[in-house]
């Protein structure tokens, strides 16, 4: 059987490139070597290259996304995209692949760019039955007196977050009026758009969703119990800072309802590949509140999606094969 040539793209242009490289190492380890020839492609500003097993770096020709190896042109049958943040998660890279006619494992350019913007995504999913969104304000510029204006509109505590960021970089939970100005400065350092939203008191969960054989599959939710104020960068990537329970503690009725909501979100946003939706189950009401969606979720051994795949008794090898096969449908 002729093996399919798969470009495993990693790295990126943001601070999340470190996580991307870790995710890629796990994906490379678990991909089916009998079916796929895996090529590690690193994408950094002005530096796109294929890394050989012996560490040799071959530059990519960006006119057609190929490398010349031993005098021969090496092209790829498909791309396993594991770049978190820009340009892999915000639509730029997949738009380039669309123009070259190369299939890939993640959402298309439109869905990727929209879902990178937290405020726009919330507006779209707010129409989904049984899914709620916290009251929020989208900001396009920082200015004197902004903190006071916001406090007239929103109730403390509130979250301040960069609109297009990932991994909770630049995000703050604000409990007092005095903290708000600093939190806004921090978020605007990361992005030109910032979202400020009211805090929802509840338990935090994350649920993986993907498509195989044209059917939307929903994995079990993971419950996140963080020792930090919220599930920030440290809580996500530092061992022991948060406790993660998969499947999360939830009664059968809620589990059935969130499965339906997750399918609806995946379909409404026209997702492809594996995505992860974060949500709250509000304490007093048991209402589901949307937090955000990650269209290129982490794939390290301890990542939430990896935990959820193992919880249903599936190997990562099978899971990744299903993701790759789906991109050719």
TrEMBL record:
One of its GO terms (molecular function) is D-alanine-D-alanine ligase activity. Pfam families: Dala_Dala_lig_C (PF07478), Dala_Dala_lig_N (PF01820). The keyword Nucleotide-binding applies. Keywords: ATP-binding, Cell shape, Cell wall biogenesis/degradation, Cytoplasm, Ligase, Magnesium, Manganese, Metal-binding, Nucleotide-binding, Peptidoglycan synthesis. Mg(2+) 2 binds at residues 292, 294. Its EC number is 6.3.2.4. HAMAP family: Dala_Dala_lig. This is D-alanine--D-alanine ligase. It comes from Cyclobacterium marinum (strain ATCC 25205 / DSM 745 / LMG 13164 / NCIMB 1802).
